[in-house]
């Protein structure tokens, strides 16, 4: 049996699980390509190139998605 509880610990769903059966995402295909990178400092000021300190790199992809990574330079 599988139980789902709320924040108070009360059971809100009881169900069965099948052994050996996978559930969830089976295949992820990402065909987006990188179209640009931008750099920002911790104050949100756009930089032309990464400088010393904590830098936020914003990568833009062809499907409109973005990815932000932080690093110490």
Draw up the topology in text:
Layout: E1 2-5, E2 11-15, E3 34-41, E4 46-47, E5 54-61, E6 66-72
List keywords for this structure.
6 strands, 4-stranded antiparallel β-sheet, 73 residues
Which strands sit side by side, in order, in the main sheet?
4-3-5-6
In terms of DSSP E residues, the strand content is: over 45%
Summarize the main sheet. 4 strands, antiparallel
Give me the strand/helix succession: EEEEEE
Radius of gyration: 21 Å
N- to C-terminal separation? 50 Å
- Structural class by helix and strand composition: mainly beta
Shape verdict:
elongated
In total, how many beta strands?
Answer: 6
Mean pLDDT: 85
Low-confidence stretches: none
What's the helical proportion of residues? under 10%
Q: Please tally the helical runs, counting DSSP H or I stretches of 4 or more residues.
A: 0
């Amino acid at each position: 049996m599988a139980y789902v509880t709320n924040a108070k610990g009360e059971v809100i769903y009881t169900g069965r699980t099948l052994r050996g059966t996978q559930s969830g995402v089976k295949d992820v295909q990402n065909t987006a390509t990188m179209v640009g990178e931008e750099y920002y400092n911790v104050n949100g000021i756009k930089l032309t190139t990464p400088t010393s300190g904590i830098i936020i790199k914003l990568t833009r992809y062809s499907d409109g998605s973005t990815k932000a990574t932080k690093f110490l330079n």
